[in-house]
Amino acid sequence: MAMRFDLGEIITAMITPMNEKKEIDYPSLEKLLAHLINNGSDALLIAGTTGESPTLTHEEEVELFKFVKSKIGSKCKLIMGAGSNCTITAVKATQNAKSAGADAILSVVPYYNKPSQKGLIAHFSAIAESTDLPIILYNIPGRTGISMKPETIAELANKYKNIAAVKQSLADMDIITETRRLCPEDFLIYSGDDSLTLPMMSVGAYGVISVASHIIGKEMKSMINLYKSGRFEEATALHLKLYPLFKKIFMAPNPVPIKQCLARMGIIENHVRLPLVPLDEQERAELYSVLEQYI
Predict the structure, then answer these.
(1) Which residues are catalytic?
(2) Residue 134 maps to which CATH number?
(3) Which structural domain range is residue 81 located in?
(4) Using N-to-C axis directions, what is the helix angle for 232-248 and 281-291, rounded to 10°?
(5) Can you give the pTM of this predicted structure?
(6) How far apart, in Å, are the Cα atoms of 63 and each of 16, 72, 83, 100, 271?
C-alpha cells in the first residue's frame, strides 16, 4: 500500500511514569521503553492523552521527548503530541517537536472552544504550513465536544501532503468508511480505540494508536498481520480473545487502568496526577482478574 509517510501499524500511546512525588520517573521510563520496543510497537506517541499531557507542562513534554529520543535513537519512530485548542500554541508545540527530533506529530481537534469545520480547516492549515513534519490529525469527539467531518479531513489531506493520517476515536463505521472513500489512497486511517482496530481495518484503516499494546503489543501485531494476509477468521478469533482486555483497560479514565496494569507487571510505580485518581481496591481486583489471562 502506498503511503505518504511510514509511521507503522502499531503506535503505542505511551504512558508517562510518575514517582510518588508525581514527578516524571525516568528510571521506570527507561524500563518501559525496553519493554515496548520488544513487544510489537512500531512507533511511540509521547505526551498524548495517555501520557497525561493535560497535566504536563510544555517544558516537561519536551524534556520527556528528548529523554526518550536519547534512549531509543532510531529503533522506532517517535511521534509527539503537539495539539492545542489555541492555534498559536499548537504551531509553537509543533516547532518544538521538530527541534526535539520528532518523526511526526499528533494534533488534536481543538477542545472546549468548539470551532466550526471552517475553523478546523484554518487551524490545521496553519499547523501544516508551519512545518514539514508528518501530521496525524486526531478526531476524538468524546473529549473535544465536536467531530471533524470526513469532508473536512479530505479537504486537508488533499491540500497538504504532510497531513499524513488521522486517528479516529469514534465507533461510527459509516464515518470511517466515508473518510476512507473521500481521502487520497496514500492517506492513513488509524483506529484510536483498541477494540475497534479490526472493525476499522475492514473498512480501510491501516493500524491503531494503541493503549493495550503496552501489554499485548505482539498479539495485536499478529491480529493485524493475520488480517492483512487474508486470514480473516484467525484475525477475528484473536480479536475476540483480546477484547475483554481492550474493554477493561478503559473501565476508568485513561491512563488510570493501564498504569495499574503496568505497576502490577513490575514495570512502573502506580502514580497519576490529579485530577486523575488511582483505582480503588474493588476496581483493582476486577482489573487484575482480566489482566491475569494475558500476562
Answers:
(1) 138, 167
(2) 3.20.20.70
(3) 10-232
(4) 160
(5) 0.97
(6) 12, 14, 17, 9, 19
